[in-house]
């Protein structure tokens, strides 16, 4: 059985990657500083520590005879990155450099890197391709793009094989204990508003999109996790390296997402339309031809599955209001 080190495996996405690896018959070992991660959701050997601690990483790679590394140990909040750029450059770039140094020392030459659609910046449209221009507009996106460059250069120089996965909007939960504890993305914010008995806020409905609200490509976290396993398979080929979008390849508007939460939960929602959020492109949808051709992977879950899994996880972990009987609530049960 091959062993893979999942750096950041106690986080929301990392914990799902651990489950997908196990399902595929691989042996995950987690390295996580637990800055935002939760040790209770790991379920496999967990080393508490920093990817910047070269000695610890070298020792871990040797001790577990690690075949490759999945690197998700990074900070990911756009707004925070604008206030604390030094922290983001240190944790997302310098620490990655340290991790690559340790991998080189041991001769571990396979890496799956968690990148982001944030590398594209203000790109607009329903067909964002990997070959499109990268022009990030915040430190978070910049650190992800610099990470890709660093890895690419190391691949050229030292024979590293890598897959950089550019995540689009990740939603949902594979099970309730693996739910997203963050409160900065659309679906968690809508659920949070419901818990507070407040109205969700739409950041602008005057965008140039069909219903005026922003359109994004949402991807179920379990599908995303499976893409990591597919990427590992592709790295078996010598010299293979890939930069790949991971999304559904279709867009949903903010209003469609909120409507889906209302349908799935059986709670009517009456969103407030607020101002546009600075730096939000109107529409960003992945072209997923490359990942399906390269890895034979495609998303299996649609928006309803994503929202339903997030809602069910919330029901188990939070004190949400119980579903109100409502004449139009059939959507919440018909496909359960
Ligand atoms: N959004 C919104 N209300 C919220 C949170 C997000 O209208 O409470 C919108 C946001 O403007 C964007 C979309 O939902 O168009 C997705 O935002 P998120 O922060 O989840 O991801 P992003 O696409 O910005 O990375």
UniProtKB/TrEMBL annotation:
<comment type="pathway">
    <text>Carbohydrate metabolism; galactose metabolism.</text>
</comment>
<feature type="compositionally biased region" description="Low complexity">
    <location>
        <begin position="327"/>
        <end position="336"/>
    </location>
</feature>
<dbReference type="GO" id="GO:0003978">
    <property type="term" value="F:UDP-glucose 4-epimerase activity"/>
</dbReference>
<dbReference type="InterPro" id="IPR005886">
    <property type="entry name" value="UDP_G4E"/>
</dbReference>
<comment type="similarity">
    <text>Belongs to the NAD(P)-dependent epimerase/dehydratase family.</text>
</comment>
<keyword id="KW-0413">Isomerase</keyword>
<dbReference type="InterPro" id="IPR001509">
    <property type="entry name" value="Epimerase_deHydtase"/>
</dbReference>
<feature type="domain" description="NAD-dependent epimerase/dehydratase">
    <location>
        <begin position="4"/>
        <end position="247"/>
    </location>
</feature>
<protein>
    <recommendedName>
        <fullName>UDP-glucose 4-epimerase</fullName>
        <ecNumber>5.1.3.2</ecNumber>
    </recommendedName>
</protein>
<keyword id="KW-0520">NAD</keyword>
<dbReference type="InterPro" id="IPR036291">
    <property type="entry name" value="NAD(P)-bd_dom_sf"/>
</dbReference>
<keyword id="KW-0119">Carbohydrate metabolism</keyword>
<feature type="region of interest" description="Disordered">
    <location>
        <begin position="316"/>
        <end position="336"/>
    </location>
</feature>
<dbReference type="Pfam" id="PF01370">
    <property type="entry name" value="Epimerase"/>
</dbReference>
């Amino acid at each position: 059985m091959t062993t893979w080190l999942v750096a950041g495996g106690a986080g929301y996405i990392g914990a799902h990657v651990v489950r997908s690896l196990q399902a595929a018959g691989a042996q995950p070992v987690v390295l996580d500083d637990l800055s935002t991660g939760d040790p209770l959701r790991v379920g496999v050997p967990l080393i508490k520590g920093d990817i910047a601690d070269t000695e610890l990483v070298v020792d871990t790679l040797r001790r577990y005879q690690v075949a490759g590394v999945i690197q998700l140990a990074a900070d990911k909040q756009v707004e925070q990155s604008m206030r604390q750029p030094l922290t983001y450059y240190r944790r997302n770039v310098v620490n990655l450099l340290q991790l690559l140094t340790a991998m080189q020392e041991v001769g571990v030459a396979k890496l799956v890197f968690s990148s982001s659609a944030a590398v594209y910046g203000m790109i607009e449209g329903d067909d964002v391709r990997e070959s499109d221009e990268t022009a990030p507009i915040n430190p978070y996106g910049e650190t992800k793009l610099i990470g890709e460059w660093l890895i690419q250069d190391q691949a050229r120089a030292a024979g590293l094989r890598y897959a950089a996965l550019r995540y689009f909007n990740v939603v949902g939960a594979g099970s309730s204990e693996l739910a997203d504890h963050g409160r900065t993305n659309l679906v968690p914010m809508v659920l949070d508003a419901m818990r507070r008995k407040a109205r969700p806020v739409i950041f602008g409905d005057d965008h140039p999109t069909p219903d005026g609200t922003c359109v994004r490509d949402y991807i179920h976290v379990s599908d995303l996790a499976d893409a990591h396993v597919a990427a590992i398979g592709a790295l078996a080929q010598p010299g293979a390296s890939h930069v790949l979008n991971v999304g559904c390849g279709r867009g949903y508007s903010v209003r469609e997402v909120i409507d889906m939460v209302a349908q799935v939960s059986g709670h009517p929602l009456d969103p407030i339309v607020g101002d546009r959020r600075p730096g939000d492109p109107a529409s960003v949808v992945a072209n997923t031809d490359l990942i399906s051709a390269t890895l034979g992977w495609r998303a299996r879950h649609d928006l309803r599955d994503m929202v339903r899994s997030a809602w069910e996880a919330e029901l188990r972990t939070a004190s949400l209001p119980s579903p109100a009987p409502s004449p139009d609530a059939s959507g919440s049960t018909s496909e359960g």
